[in-house]
Amino acid sequence: MALACFQFGNVLSLASPVSADEARKLVQEKYNGNIVNVTQRDNKYEITLELDTGTYVLEVNRTTGGIENLTRTSQNHLPNSNEETGAPNKDQILTKEDAARIALQKVNGTVDDIDLEQSDGLTYFLVEVEREHTKDAIVQINAISGEVMSITWED
């Protein structure tokens, strides 16, 4: 029994934490932006990321590699701003209208459907765009940053 506990303890100690480079790559794969800074704090990395819509700080768990938090620290584009002051409402999810506008900036056509989805801690819109004489498209948009994550063409 003691041997089994010792061996199990050795297995746990062999699991190495996610490196700063691995955390950087993980964030770069999920968001198409410019990583400005990576700082290690306790059991997480704080990664500062610049996107077209603003600057964000992401917290990446060093043990799991999962993104635990995403906070907008400044905003370049203000789709969800306070009308009177112009101040951004931090961490507010874009509206469906914002998602439709962003999708139509990338793909010409008519918006057919918009769904809000969540996967692996990431919230995003899937915007279906119908086109007349060519393939329809599904535009995946980050629901917080407004960043276009992908465009999939359908028959």
Q: Quote the beta fraction.
A: 35-45%
SSE string, helix = H, strand = E? HHEEEEHEEEE
Shape: elongated
**CATH overall fold name of the largest domain:** Nuclear Transport Factor 2, Chain: A
> Strand order of the main beta sheet, please?
1-2-3-4
Structural class: alpha+beta
Query: Helix content range of the residues, please?
Result: 10-25%
N- to C-terminal separation?
60 Å
Query: Number of helical runs?
Result: 3
Q: How many strands, which pairing sense, and closed or not: the largest β-sheet? A: 4 strands, antiparallel
How many domains comprise the coordinates? 2
Report the radius of gyration as a whole number of Å: 20 Å
- The unreliable regions are 1-14, 78-90
Q: Can you tell me the CATH architecture of the largest domain?
A: Roll
Explained architecture:
The protein has 155 residues and is of the alpha+beta class. The chain has two domains: 16-91, Nuclear Transport Factor 2, Chain: A (Roll); 93-155, Nuclear Transport Factor 2, Chain: A, CATH 3.10.450.40. It is 23% helix and 43% strand. The protein is built from three helices and eight strands. The protein has helices at residues 2-14, 20-30, 96-106, and strands spanning 34-41, 44-51, 54-61, 67-75, 110-119, 122-130, 136-142, 148-154. The strands form two sheets. Strands 1-2-3-4 form a four-stranded antiparallel beta sheet, covered by helices on one side. A hairpin with a 2-residue loop joins β5 (110-119) and β6 (122-130). The longest helix is centred in the first third of the chain and has 13 residues, at 2-14.
